[in-house]
Write a structure and sequence with these properties.
With about 300 residues, the protein is α/β, with parallel strands linked by helices. The chain folds into 2 domains: about 160 residues, Quinone Oxidoreductase, Chain A, domain 1, CATH 3.90.180; about 120 residues, NAD(P)-binding Rossmann-like Domain (Rossmann fold, 3-Layer(aba) Sandwich). Helix content is about 20%, strand content about 25%. The chain has 9 helices and 14 strands. The strands form 3 sheets. Strands 3, 4, 5, 6, 7, 13 and 14 form a 7-stranded mixed sheet that branches. It has a 5-stranded parallel sheet with strand order 10-9-8-11-12. A two-stranded antiparallel ribbon has the order 1-2. The longest helix is centred in the middle third of the chain and has 14 residues. The termini are close together.
């Protein structure tokens, strides 16, 4: 099969097209024929991209761990899906990802794809929507009427966090940059602050029930005085993973696959109450552009795989 593999060059990471053996599902696994793969610009620099689970060096990694596609084969014991079924989901960070014609995942990490979305649209959803869902509900314990502060409310995770919080009856304050403030307002934020021109703490009054940081840097630390005692700070920025401040470090989490949550997200998308955006849909041969940081717009950049054959 065709795949985009990461070179081992000591210079900036780069993807090269390669022909490699098609993987086969082990018992309990699923083989996906990938239609489209969602990308995260910083992924090529992540630890799981350059290391295996034991900490050793990883070579020729295939990135992109969210996708939309069809079931191509079922490993022994898998009965929840059928061949040819349209699905969307994610796979393990240390596994070969979806910038290939096929990838391996597990049943618990996928769900039937939203009926109203095409493959490129569906591929923008799994990681970002699950991150927002788990941050708000699993870690933040969101309730109707809560006040939520979302940093980076127009980003790929923030746009889902703002929508989901608004849909569940929260009052949402969001920070965004420049013209993104208009977009954040359209998502359902009640108040938007341009964090490039304004210090949010100068214009926002607490307390907040949840602070959800997708930006990193010192945004969460500066926000903590606004947090209601006993409530929850959440961050997905890797800059906070090893923070010397235990409050910030403990707020960090990494998204996990969850089939039930993917099914609920698909329902919200199909009923038209939740929306996603494709920043750009690139052909397979242009996959490197997805990680170059030069594409502007809202949503996520997607690489279309089906045309690679």
């Amino acid at each position: 099969m065709k795949a985009m593999c990461l070179t081992d060059s000591s210079e900036s990471p780069k993807l090269v097209e390669a022909n490699i053996p098609q993987p086969q599902p082990a018992p309990g696994e699923v083989l996906i024929r990938v239609s489209a793969a969602g990308t995260i610009r910083t992924e090529l620099d992540w630890y799981p991209t350059s290391h295996d689970k034991s900490g050793g060096p990883r070579h020729n990694a295939i990135p992109s761990h969210e996708f939309a596609g069809t079931i191509a084969a079922l490993g022994e014991g898998v009965t929840d899906f059928t061949l040819g079924q349209h699905v969307y989901g994610m796979n393990d960070w240390f596994a070969d990802g979806a910038l290939a014609e096929y990838c391996i995942t597990t049943p618990s990490a996928i769900a039937p794809a939203p009926l109203t979305l095409n493959s490129a649209e569906a591929a923008t959803v799994p990681i970002s929507a699950l991150t927002a869902w788990q941050g708000l509900f699993d870690r933040g314990h969101l309730h109707p009427g809560d006040r939520i502060l979302v940093h980076g409310g127009a980003g790929s995770v923030g746009l889902f966090a703002v929508q989901l919080a608004h849909l569940h009856g929260a009052r949402v304050v969001a920070t965004a940059s420049g013209q993104d403030t208009v977009f954040a307002n359209q998502l359902g934020a009640n108040q938007i602050i341009d964090y490039h021109s304004t210090n949010f703490e100068d214009v926002v009054q607490g307390p907040f029930d949840i602070i959800f940081d997708t930006v990193g840097g010192d945004m969460l630390l500066r926000s903590l005085p606004l947090l209601k005692p006993g409530r929850f700070a959440v961050t997905v920025s890797s800059t906070n993973e090893n923070s010397p401040d235990e409050r910030v470090k403990n707020a960090f989490f990494i998204v996990e696959p969850n089939q039930r949550q993917l099914m609920e997200v698909a329902h919200w998308l199909d009923t038209g109450r939740l929306h996603t955006w494709v920043k750009a849909a690139l052909p397979f041969a242009q996959a490197n552009e997805a990680y170059a940081g030069t594409i502007s717009g809202h949503g996520k950049t997607v690489v279309c795989i089906e045309a690679a054959a």
